Amino acid sequence: MWKGSNKFFRRGPGNGITYSGALDSSNNLILEVNLINNEDELYYAFKMIDKSMFSMFVLNKTKSLLELLTWSQTTQNWNVYSYVPRDQCDSYGLCGVYGNCITTQLPICQCLEGFKPKSTGYKDWSQGCMRNKALNYSKLDGFIKFKGLKLPDATNSSVNKSMNLEQCRVKCLENTSCMAYSNLDIRGGGSGCAMWFGDLIDIKQLSNDVQDLFIRMSASELGFVRVVSFEKSASKRSKKQLSVKIGVLGFLICSGVLSSVLDFDFGSIDGFGKFSVAVLMSCVVAFLYTPAGKNARSFWLGSDQLRSNLEIFSRG
User: Fold this and answer.
1) Best label site of 16, 19, 67, 187, fewest CB within 10 Å?
2) Is the Membrane keyword given for this protein (predicted)?
3) How, if at all, do strands 203-205 and 55-60 pair?
4) Farthest CA pair distance, the chain
């Protein structure tokens, strides 16, 4: 919907069952929506479930609403069955690029994970969000899966019906302008490929998570988000396994195993090189004294045999 020269409301793209961000299709008892997608055309067909019922779409200029009206034989009047937009988050691009509109939070605009506000103003979200870490624009980039989002504006997008999700990921990664991808059709486990190019805008948090959206991230941000996600959702056993691996690696670095194996002379590197090594070792040591490194410390202190073996190995 347009209001003058400005976009006012956008219903999300279809996913084979309903529209992203539209009302729950299970509540729609009067209309059946079908996606027609072939080599010649792409469109949606509306079919009345109850053919004895009369309905129509009306653009209500006074209320700035698109209304679905049904005819009541009892009252001999048209009644509003549903309408859009329904809430403040339906306002087009309210939270700017990479902003996520969440009706249940204050402020309702939040940045997607991996992004931060461009503006420091509490109420100014017109500029949207920016990345925490810049993209590499190479195969070093990766993707983070987001669930339960109204898919972004598809003005700058492309679709391929024959590709699967993995092929879609590879294709998107090869194009430095591709910022996100998703299945085109979610029926039957998902099929097809939809890719978005340029900044993503008009995103809203939904109450359901029927469709996943994969957003491009830099390699460094990808690793950080994975650790955060791991800490939030993984089991304690998995946490311990990861911490042990990182903790042992940290010990190997700090105890000089790498220098012994590689016969590396730290005296041969320049001042900046020494500084870089010092920073690396400091980060490893600092990790071991964070909550995530607690299990690694416990594992290390409780394994005298392994410690002895590593000490002997490091001394050569």
Assistant:
1) 187
2) yes
3) unpaired
4) 94
What is the Cα 235 distance to its own chain's centre? 22
Place of tokens 């089991």: 235
Which residues in the chain are classed under CATH 3.50.4.10?
Answer: 90-222
d(C-alpha 255, C-alpha 242), whole Å: 20
The answer to whether 21 touches 204, Cβ cutoff 8 Å, is yes
Q: What's domain 90-222's superfamily in CATH? A: Hepatocyte Growth Factor (3.50.4.10)
The pair of structure tokens assigned to 243 is 């911490």
What is the chain's length?
316
| Tokens matching residue 158 | 């492309």
Token pair in block for residue 250: 């940290």
pTM, full prediction:
0.64
How far apart (Å, rounded) are the C-alpha atoms in residues 53 and 73? 9
